[in-house]
Amino acid sequence: MPLALYDTWSRTLRPFTPLRPDYVGLYGCGPTVYDHAHIGNLRTYVFEDVLRRALVQNGYTVRHVVNITDVGHLVSDADDGEDKMEKGSRRTGESAWAIAERYTAAFQHDWRALNLLEPTIWCRATDHIAEQIDFIAELERNGYTYRTADGIYFDTARQDDYGYLARLDITGLQAGKRVAVGDKRRATDFALWKFSPPGSTRQMEWESPWGVGFPGWHIECSAMSAKYLGPWFDIHCGGEDHIAVHHSNEIAQTQARHGTRLANFWLHGHFLMLDAGKMAKSGGDFVRLQTLIERGVDPLAYRYLCLGAHYRSSLRFNMEALDAAQAALDRLRKVYRQWPEGGAPDAEAVARFNAEVDQDLNLPRALAVLWDVVRSDLPAATRRATLDCFDRVLGLRLADWREDVVTIPAGIALLATQRDGARAAKNWREADRLREQLRVEGWRVEDSAEGQVLRPLD
Ligand code: AMP
Ligand code: ZN
């Protein structure tokens, strides 16, 4: 059975065939780097990573492009309000440029901690201003733009099928919304280029044929994806929130310039939810990967948690679910490590696993196949080799895992030996004194059937 993916454009599960033999162009909308990414954002990138691994598993060479939005994403989708970067700059007292640098590095750190494959190309919006200006100039030549007091806008009235991706009810939208921004003509029109406010200088601004200012958010993805993948490529991804505005606008621009809807397949990951509602950067109520790490959670346990829910259903996050994921991953690592190397994978199990992955990335069912193999009576070496195959898609780094080896300094080891001696001599007071001294030095003693165990205090 070939790989089938759910395409938001057609709202159907479609067999995947690449536009060029054996090669897949894949674009994922990257983060807006005015703050840390939260684990909701990261869920979307885990889904895209699994997609990429599934494509590789199917024999394709993948060119994967991820952008970094470091300018132009406004606080409101309606083209008014502040640039998120300038807002971040006010919040932290650093320059918008410094913030972009810092949060890009933090994002890429999280990316690697989750064992996401490195994109073929990372591209920053501010490194592609010329491409965005060229794109807008071409839209202007084709008659798709108009000028207002605060910028150059895309005229969505020029396209009968504007918003098809989201099945937008344009008439309802126009009736329901007052257009308050500058003199933008329609609620669905959007900024291509915004002017710097008169009499003030922005931290990020550039000359353009229309005046000093900065690009609107949507144009960066149309310009950079066309540059690196061409104006008609295989798969474009992002979170479900992008369907109605960002991706609809990327399509509108590319349709107007190149006559394509940008990508043959549009895939969207559903949201990570908190009990209180959705997790959003602007909401303030968000959890970072680093916060989980500080609580002793392995980032790959979060990855495991994501794999346990289908990407097209929302995932409710809480610490109990995360603990369960950590326990499952620990168990998997321990059994895997006991099995010898040198076996060959079980072809039937691999075929079952791949069939689940190929069915629109059904990772929950693929994981069920994995646990069947763990519990099976296949020879241990076969089980190990089979899990090695699975892990190429799961990305849990089973083969790399080592139990933490704690190095105990000589002075601490000496105290522990003395305590052991005191216990053997039933000198409980001395044993307790030594326990306390170890605690002051930052070590906890646990007495078990196998003798005492030393652990560093958190
Ligand atoms: P942003 O940095 O806000 O531009 O978002 C980066 C990516 O995270 C986008 O693909 C969003 O669609 C996605 N995203 C935002 N919030 C969530 C969430 N709660 N769960 C899953 N994905 C999200
Ligand atoms: Zn985008």
UniProtKB/TrEMBL annotation:
<dbReference type="InterPro" id="IPR015803">
    <property type="entry name" value="Cys-tRNA-ligase"/>
</dbReference>
<dbReference type="Pfam" id="PF01406">
    <property type="entry name" value="tRNA-synt_1e"/>
</dbReference>
<dbReference type="InterPro" id="IPR032678">
    <property type="entry name" value="tRNA-synt_1_cat_dom"/>
</dbReference>
<comment type="subunit">
    <text>Monomer.</text>
</comment>
<keyword id="KW-0648">Protein biosynthesis</keyword>
<feature type="domain" description="tRNA synthetases class I catalytic">
    <location>
        <begin position="16"/>
        <end position="326"/>
    </location>
</feature>
<protein>
    <recommendedName>
        <fullName>Cysteine--tRNA ligase</fullName>
        <ecNumber>6.1.1.16</ecNumber>
    </recommendedName>
</protein>
<dbReference type="GO" id="GO:0008270">
    <property type="term" value="F:zinc ion binding"/>
</dbReference>
<feature type="binding site">
    <location>
        <position position="281"/>
    </location>
    <ligand>
        <name>ATP</name>
    </ligand>
</feature>
<feature type="binding site">
    <location>
        <position position="221"/>
    </location>
    <ligand>
        <name>Zn(2+)</name>
    </ligand>
</feature>
<keyword id="KW-0030">Aminoacyl-tRNA synthetase</keyword>
<dbReference type="InterPro" id="IPR009080">
    <property type="entry name" value="tRNAsynth_Ia_anticodon-bd"/>
</dbReference>
<dbReference type="GO" id="GO:0006423">
    <property type="term" value="P:cysteinyl-tRNA aminoacylation"/>
</dbReference>
<keyword id="KW-0436">Ligase</keyword>
<dbReference type="GO" id="GO:0005524">
    <property type="term" value="F:ATP binding"/>
</dbReference>
<feature type="short sequence motif" description="'KMSKS' region">
    <location>
        <begin position="278"/>
        <end position="282"/>
    </location>
</feature>
<feature type="binding site">
    <location>
        <position position="246"/>
    </location>
    <ligand>
        <name>Zn(2+)</name>
    </ligand>
</feature>
<keyword id="KW-0479">Metal-binding</keyword>
<dbReference type="GO" id="GO:0005829">
    <property type="term" value="C:cytosol"/>
</dbReference>
<feature type="binding site">
    <location>
        <position position="250"/>
    </location>
    <ligand>
        <name>Zn(2+)</name>
    </ligand>
</feature>
<feature type="short sequence motif" description="'HIGH' region">
    <location>
        <begin position="31"/>
        <end position="41"/>
    </location>
</feature>
<comment type="similarity">
    <text>Belongs to the class-I aminoacyl-tRNA synthetase family.</text>
</comment>
<dbReference type="InterPro" id="IPR014729">
    <property type="entry name" value="Rossmann-like_a/b/a_fold"/>
</dbReference>
<keyword id="KW-0547">Nucleotide-binding</keyword>
<keyword id="KW-0963">Cytoplasm</keyword>
<keyword id="KW-0067">ATP-binding</keyword>
<dbReference type="InterPro" id="IPR024909">
    <property type="entry name" value="Cys-tRNA/MSH_ligase"/>
</dbReference>
<keyword id="KW-0862">Zinc</keyword>
<dbReference type="GO" id="GO:0004817">
    <property type="term" value="F:cysteine-tRNA ligase activity"/>
</dbReference>
<feature type="binding site">
    <location>
        <position position="29"/>
    </location>
    <ligand>
        <name>Zn(2+)</name>
    </ligand>
</feature>
